[in-house]
Amino acid sequence: MAEFTPRQKAECADREVAQRQKVYGRRVLEGRMTRQFADQQIAMMSEIAREYRAMADAEEAKGRLL
């Protein structure tokens, strides 16, 4: 199994947020998804991205101190 850095994970999660914003809006308009569910899923992925960015920032700051 491949290992990815927190920065790579954050960037992937950011791309997923953008994708969800694009696709889920259309699904809501088509009646295939509720607005509440779409908003919840986008918020959850946004939080994941923030957490990975924070981990990446901390890891990079730690590296600069060494």
Written description of the protein model:
The chain has 66 residues and is mainly alpha-helical. The protein has 2 helices and no strands. The chain has one domain (6-65). Helix 1 (6-29) runs antiparallel to helix 2 (35-65). The protein has helices at 6-29, 35-65. It starts with 5 loop residues before the first helix and ends with a helix. The longest helix has 31 residues, at 35-65. It is elongated, with a radius of gyration of 15 Å.
Helix proportion: over 70%
The structure class reads: mainly alpha
> DSSP helix count?
2
Specify the biggest β-sheet.
Answer: none
Counting copies of identical and different chains, the oligomeric state is single chain
The mean pLDDT is 93
Order of helices and strands: HH
**What's the gyration radius in Å?**
15 Å
List segments where confidence is low: pLDDT < 50 over at least 5 consecutive residues.
none
Short key terms for the protein model shown above:
83% helix, 66 residues, mainly alpha
